[in-house]
UniProtKB/TrEMBL annotation:
Name used for this protein in its record: Dihydroxy-acid dehydratase
Pfam families found in the cross-reference section: ILV_EDD_C (PF24877), ILVD_EDD_N (PF00920)
Domain Dihydroxy-acid/6-phosphogluconate dehydratase C-terminal: 359-553
Organism for this UniProt entry: Candidatus Pseudothioglobus singularis PS1
Keyword field: Iron, Iron-sulfur, Lyase, Metal-binding
Similarity comment: Belongs to the IlvD/Edd family.
SUPFAM superfamilies registered for this protein in UniProt: IlvD/EDD N-terminal domain-like (SSF143975), LeuD/IlvD-like (SSF52016)
Source species taxonomy: Bacteria, Pseudomonadati, Pseudomonadota, Gammaproteobacteria, Candidatus Pseudothioglobaceae
EC annotation from Swiss-Prot or TrEMBL: 4.2.1.9
Span of domain Dihydroxy-acid/6-phosphogluconate dehydratase N-terminal: 40-335
GO terms, molecular function: dihydroxy-acid dehydratase activity; iron-sulfur cluster binding; metal ion binding
PROSITE patterns from the UniProt entry: ILVD_EDD_1
Top EC category: lyase
Length: 571
């Protein structure tokens, strides 16, 4: 059997019978000539372009760049759409649909006659959703990201996606900013296609993808509208054809070491807390043992990147300062040998890197913050773990004891947070329930609940907030997230009452409800299960099968992979 006959796509286009006729003939309706079905690699371009996902609005053009590269290398590019998840547009939360996108990607790749796939994504959930789906099929796979938006501008200053929205909205509530100024900032913030240009979840995931060797170098930081991104798309198209020839499947790049490198890099860039949940879910698909303990025992890596929300610059500045290769060069002694889509070790990505602006990218010996990794907290309030991002928190609050003020659900919080008589002080610990994977459903980014208005007026800008929710990667504050098990499944967070004392000690990894065990048990026994709002469709499937945050909030039946060819023809 010749090598080309071993290609996956030959099971569709290589047959000289009725089935082959049908597969080829209908494709020829697009003007494809006979010779493109001679056994050359068929490359799927999996596109999350959508006008409802403005962050991914540039992907149509990038797909053209990929196609140029595929044709040049002797492959056949075929673009296909998958569900797109617009983080700022979808209700109740785009995270509810991450697993649905992954199913769309997985089944599309499996059902069609393609040999390799290019994933075009960018907005927060599109990158992990696409990779999760692709990992469950395991073809040669390469990522091309949307790239970040240009820096936001307001009154001559750079402003950052998300981060400055949270800041401005607090200033409006405090009476320090007018509504007119607020609207002007809204217009100046998002000036081009591309993803949030702070180190939010989208740029975090693109950075980790680059650091894991799943894309070409510089993929994370080149601005969406930079011509060099089109060049990168072209080169990625060329490379995926070579990857098919080399039989370099995704599983040969996605290894335990590449996940460990992602955890290390996430600390150095001050990456989003959401990366934890996405990496856990992706590892589950790739059948790699990864759990919260891997984040807990990760080495203490300093924060090197001076980007919002932990610092002051934006992705455009990061790109011009040297980007991910320059950061990886600084932490090279902590990076493990790992293969990449270039079929070369990851060191190849940063061998010639240099820092071009030392205020944006700090050196390992003179970092922005000495310790920056995400911390895992455990205790009787979070037996299966919770997450905090110390780099975005207030130092003094990282060891604290205070009385809880509890919101039973998001509606309770929204209705009461601005009450002038809310009995809270800057030492109060706000607790929000009902925002976990099953409870909301979809585990939204509401963990960074606003500071109560009475405290904003006193000048308070941060306090401890605890929830079973996530938070936007662009947000900041002393915020404990992903408390597991969540309230909706009877986790201890469900029985916290206003006035209970809570202890947090980040350096010791502790999160304790200082209520006697007998009282906790009594409350858990008398707890009432909240009524379910969703009784049909995908949301019902999700609620019935979603796992908790410490397992990546994937659907339990999607864990693992199935690399077999579809066994039956369609006709
Ligand atoms: Fe799409 Fe931030 S909203 S990347």
């Amino acid at each position: 059997m010749s090598k080309t006959n071993k290609r996956r796509s030959s099971n569709w286009y290589g047959k000289m019978d009725k089935d082959g006729f049908i597969h080829r003939s209908w494709m020829k309706s697009q003007g494809l000539p006979d010779h493109v079905f001679d056994g050359r690699p068929i490359i799927g371009i999996c596109n999350t372009w959508s006008e409802l996902t403005p962050c991914n609005a540039g992907l149509r053009k990038l797909a053209e760049g990929v196609k140029r590269g595929v044709w040049e290398a002797g492959g056949v590019p075929l673009e296909f759409p998958v569900m797109s998840l617009g983080e700022t547009q979808m209700k109740p939360t785009a995270m509810l649909f991450r697993n649905l996108l992954s199913m769309d990607v997985e089944e599309s790749i499996r059902a069609y006659g393609i040999d390799g796939v290019v994933l075009l994504g960018g907005c927060d959930k599109t990158t992990p959703g696409q990779l999760m789906g692709a990992a469950s099929v395991d073809l040669p796979t390469i990522v091309v990201s949307s790239g970040p938006m240009l820096n936001g501008k307001y009154k001559g200053q750079d402003i950052g996606s998300g981060t400055d929205v949270w800041r401005f909205s607090e200033e409006v509530r405090a009476g320090d900013m007018t509504l007119k100024e607020f609207m002007a900032a809204e217009t100046g913030m998002s000036r081009s296609s591309g993803v949030c240009m702070t180190m939010g979840t989208a740029s975090t995931m693109a950075s980790l993808v680059e650091g894991m060797g799943l894309s070409l170098p510089t993929n994370a930081t080149l601005p969406a509208v930079d011509a060099r991104r089109m060049t990168l798309a072209h080169l990625s198209g060329k490379r995926i054809v070579e990857m098919v020839e080399e039989e370099l499947n995704l599983s040969k790049v996605l290894t335990k070491e590449s996940f460990q490198n992602a955890i290390t890099l996430n600390s150095a860039i001050g990456g989003s807390t959401n990366s934890v949940i996405h990496l856990l879910a992706l590892a589950g698909r790739a059948e790699i043992e990864l759990n919260l303990a891997d984040f807990e025992k990760a080495e203490d890596i300093p924060l090197l990147v001076n980007l919002m929300p932990s610092g002051k610059y934006l992705m455009e500045d990061f790109c011009y300062a040297g980007g991910i290769p320059a950061v990886m060069d600084q932490i090279r002694s902590h990076i493990k040998p790992a293969n990449t889509i270039l079929n070369k070790d990851i060191t190849h990505y940063f061998d010639e890197a240099e820092i071009l602006n030392k205020d944006v990218i700090k050196t390992f010996n003179a970092p922005l913050k000495a310790s920056a990794g995400l911390k895992v907290l455990r205790g009787n309030l979070a037996p299966d773990g919770a997450i905090i991002k110390p780099a975005a928190a207030t130092e003094d609050l990282l060891k604290h004891e205070g009385l809880a003020y509890v919101f039973e659900d998001i509606e309770d919080m929204k209705a009461n947070i601005d009450r002038p008589d809310l009995p809270v002080t800057k030492n109060t610990i706000l607790v929000l329930k009902g925002c976990g994977p099953k409870g909301y459903p979809g585990m939204p980014e509401v963990g960074n609940m606003p500071i109560p208005k009475v405290l904003v007026e006193q000048g308070v800008r941060d306090m401890i907030r605890i929830s079973d929710a996530r938070m936007s990667g662009t947000a900041f504050g002393t915020i404990v997230l992903h408390v597991a098990p969540e309230a909706n499944v009877g986790g201890p967070i469900s029985i916290v009452e206003t006035g209970d004392r809570i202890q947090i000690n980040v350096s010791q990894g502790l999160l304790e409800l200082l209520v006697p065990e007998s009282e906790i048990e009594k409350r858990l026994k008398s707890r009432k299960q909240p009524k379910e709002n969703y009784t049909r469709g995908y949301a019902k499937l999700y609620i019935d099968n979603v796992m908790q945050a410490d397992k990546g909030a994937d659907l339990d039946f999607l864990v693992g992979k199935d690399t077999r060819l579809p066994s039956r023809e369609s006709h």
